[in-house]
Amino acid sequence: MNQEKIGKFIAECRKENGYTQASLAEKLGITDRAVSKWETGKSMPDASIMLELCELLKINANELLTGEHIIMDNYKEIAEQNLVEMRTQEEKANKKLMKAERFLTILTIVASLALIISGALIAEHNPTIGIILCSLGSLIVFLGIAYAVKMEHDVGYYECPECKTRYVPSMRAVVLAIHYGSTRKMRCPHCNKKGYHKKVMTK
């Protein structure tokens, strides 16, 4: 997926339909700076506004992702290529986020342990500072793990071992689930069976 080509295509279609960057941004409820970033190939439109953008530019999603108008002869082939490309990009992005989540968890545990151990050692000579350090260590581990769990919830999907459905569970279900790593024991919202649901990166 060539972001520069897509950006030039967005700019071309925007001008054809009589929009300035500011007027297009206003229609989409975003900043004109975001539109500028698309058109220079620095970023891609968010999936949540992609269909609305296509409607305004009078193109379809496949043409947007290809960066050119598509003739009907090779439409299906290009559509399939775009879907594969989007899935690959989603998987790469989600894998990076999961690595960041693991790093954050390790960093949080190390930092909190260092503070708690320091607090325990200092407490013999200065109880007040010792209590503050131990409390701070406990708070850091709580906040760090809470944020890591939220990151895990927001990235990718969980796959039911029974019906193989991939879905996004509620935050409550993830927090309360027994787990090892990112595999959690939950009830599937589709087949209603309980089991260890594995984390997967794409739908």
Quantity of strands, as a count: 5
Q: What's the number of structural domains?
A: 3
Spans of at least 5 consecutive residues with low confidence: none
Helix fraction, binned, reads: 55-70%
What can you tell me about this protein's structure?
With 203 residues, this protein is of the alpha+beta class. The protein folds into three domains: 3-70, lambda repressor-like DNA-binding domains (434 Repressor (Amino-terminal Domain), Orthogonal Bundle); 84-154; 157-200, no CATH class. It is built from eight helices and five strands. It has helices at 3-16, 21-28, 32-39, 47-57, 61-66, 75-123, 127-154, 171-176, and strands at residues 157-159, 166-167, 179-180, 183-187, 194-200. A five-stranded antiparallel β-sheet has the order 2-1-5-4-3, with no helix packed on it. α2 (21-28) crosses α3 (32-39). The longest helix has 49 residues, at 75-123. The chain is elongated. It starts with a helix and ends with a strand. The mean pLDDT is 88.
Topology:
Blueprint lengths: L2 H14 L4 H8 L3 H8 L7 H11 L3 H6 L8 H49 L3 H28 L2 E3 L6 E2 L3 H6 L2 E2 L2 E5 L6 E7 L3
Antiparallel strand pairs: 1-2, 1-5, 3-4, 4-5
Helix pairs in contact: 2-3, 6-7
